[in-house]
């Protein structure tokens, strides 16, 4: 469709060129054109409560939508399925910011008009937030097609809009939920549509997503974790377990990996796979990481004092945000000095993404750490986006082969690509002068094969699960060990 050259952001007085056409002149010529609403979609009767309608678009507001939802969900209603589409304009804040609030208002009126044109009988359109609209689809509007309704709304919004002299391509995201009335309350239905909307946004915008109860439950759990984590640190609910690493040649204890744990008073033991990503997402990983580093270094100091001459490696995981922190080497140097630890006995495990920069603060931090004499290992090597050219120039000492490569059943294992992968990583590491630690070793048969493939150190359930410091202490006391 060819859009007329019209600048709806300007008044007739602003018209500089005789060829330009203003909004009011345009509307006078083409009343009722859907390009811009000549009137709001709905006209609240003056006697009706203003609190029920949005003054900008004339649409019912959130309060009225809720009332309609209550009515549709009440036992007195027909108990037929209903649907809800929750529409949010993508990037609306930027439009407001760049083009001004007047233009933003006009865009919302345009969108309100376009949506209302696409809806059939039995649909109630409401403006439920600044750039949010909701459509209640009742049974008479064939709720089975609530997805079609959402698609029609998306298409209507996608048509270019000319505002403030620009041709704008606006999109929206929609969360869709359809259900039998007895399944949800009004609040639950709205929250489900909001959750589906968040999924549509996360999936890349300009699309609709149906509510996914499983995904929603997982998101709720993540929210709960994010909310509880700061208190967990303050209340001492976090602690550290240590998993043995043994030398491939003689089975002697090489060191331990410090693994964060969280005992939540209600949720029980929360796995690091659950709370570490949430801590990263919410900017709390620095604090969690410092706690683990301090605890592990204090523990290493205790073991070095109790078992002199054992030269036990303490391996601590670092999240990418920690390697970006230029204050990290100062903290590490302080802990090494405080606990009398030989720097070569501290290993820091970084992820492959920390290897991506060829320059910058993360690399400087790693070089400073290596300069202290600390060992660096790349965790789960081969599962991320390794920059192999960096391997030559980076201060790395070990590669850790992830569990995924080594846990296939041993009789199949020899024939599998995993075997080739392990062999390749070992050859790469050894040719660069790096050691190889194989993780997830669960049987002696696996260990035998991994030994033949050249791995230097093993870590896995067959050598011990992550355990308390006392358990490691008992193990150290039981076997005198030999110097590496
Ligand atoms: P990771 O660093 O690769 O740690 C190894 C994980 O594999 C641990 O899981 C360990 O319990 C598990 N594992 C070890 N051997 C076996 C085995 O034989 N079989 C099986 N099935 N699993 C084995 P965990 O403790 O749940 O930790 C998961 C991940 O959480 C860690 O993977 C690490 O990426 C992260 N993580 C844990 N603690 C910290 C921490 O303090 N800081 C950071 N940044 N990440 C941490
Ligand atoms: Mg690790
Ligand atoms: Mg690992």
Q: Please write the CATH class name of the largest domain.
A: Alpha Beta
- Report the uncertain regions: 1-42
Widest sheet, order of strands: 10-11-13-14-15-16-17-18
Corresponding CATH architecture of the largest domain = Alpha-Beta Barrel
Assess the beta-strand content as a share of residues: 15-25%
CATH fold node name of the largest domain? TIM Barrel
Secondary structure tally: strands: 18
Helix segment tally: 18
Q: What small molecules does the structure contain?
A: ligand C2E, magnesium ion
How many domains is the backbone divided into?
2
Helical amount among residues, as a percent range? Answer: 40-55%
Assembly level:
single chain
Q: Give the overall shape.
A: elongated
**Average pLDDT across residues?**
85
């Amino acid at each position: 469709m060819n859009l007329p050259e019209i600048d709806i952001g300007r008044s007739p007085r602003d018209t500089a060129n005789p060829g330009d056409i203003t909004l009011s002149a345009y509307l006078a010529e083409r009343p009722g054109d859907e390009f811009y609403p000549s009137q709001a979609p709905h006209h609240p009767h003056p006697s009706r409560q203003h609190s029920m309608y949005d003054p900008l678009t004339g649409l019912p507001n959130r309060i009225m939508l809720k009332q309609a939802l209550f009515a549709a969900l009440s036992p007195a209603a027909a108990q037929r399925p209903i649907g809800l589409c929750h529409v949010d304009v993508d990037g609306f804040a930027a439009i407001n910011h760049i083009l001004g609030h007047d233009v933003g208002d006009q865009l919302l009126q345009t969108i309100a008009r376009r949506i209302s044109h696409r809806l059939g009988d039995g649909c109630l359109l409401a403006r439920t937030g600044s750039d949010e609209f909701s459509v209640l689809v009742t049974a008479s509007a064939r709720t089975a097609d609530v997805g079609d309704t959402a698609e029609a709304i998306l298409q209507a919004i996608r048509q270019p809009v000319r505002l403030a002299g620009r041709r704008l391509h606006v999109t929206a995201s929609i969360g869709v939920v359809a259900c039998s009335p007895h399944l949800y309350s009004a609040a639950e239905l709205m929250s489900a549509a909001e959750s589906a909307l968040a999924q549509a946004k996360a999936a890349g915008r300009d699309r609709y997503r149906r509510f996914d109860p499983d995904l929603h439950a997982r998101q709720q759990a993540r929210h709960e974790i994010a909310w509880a984590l700061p208190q967990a640190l303050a209340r001492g609910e976090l602690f550290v377990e240590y998993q043995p690493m043994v030398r491939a040649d003689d089975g002697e204890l090489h060191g331990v990996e410090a693994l964060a744990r969280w005992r939540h008073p209600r949720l029980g033991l929360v796995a690091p796979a659950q709370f570490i990503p949430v801590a990263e997402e919410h900017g709390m990983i620095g604090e969690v990481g410092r706690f683990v580093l301090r605890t592990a270094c204090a523990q290493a100091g205790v073991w070095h004092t109790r078992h002199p001459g054992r030269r036990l490696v303490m391996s601590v995981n670092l999240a990418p945000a920690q390697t970006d922190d230029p204050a990290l080497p100062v903290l590490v140097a302080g802990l090494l000095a405080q606990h009398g630890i030989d720097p070569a006995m501290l290993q820091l495990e970084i992820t492959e993404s920390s290897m991506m920069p060829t320059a910058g603060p993360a690399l400087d931090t790693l070089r400073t750490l290596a300069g202290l004499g600390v060992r660096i290992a790349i965790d789960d090597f081969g599962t991320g986006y390794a920059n192999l050219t960096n391997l030559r120039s980076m201060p790395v000492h070990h590669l850790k082969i992830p569990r995924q490569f080594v846990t296939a059943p041993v009789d199949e294992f020899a024939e599998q690509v995993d075997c080739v992968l392990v062999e390749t990583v070992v050859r790469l590491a050894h040719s660069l002068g790096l050691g190889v630690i194989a993780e997830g070793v669960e049987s002696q048969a696996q260990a035998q094969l991994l030994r033949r493939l050249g791995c230097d150190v093993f870590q896995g359930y067959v050598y011990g699960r992550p355990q308390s410091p006392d358990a490691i202490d008992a193990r150290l006391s039981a076997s005198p060990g030999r110097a590496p």
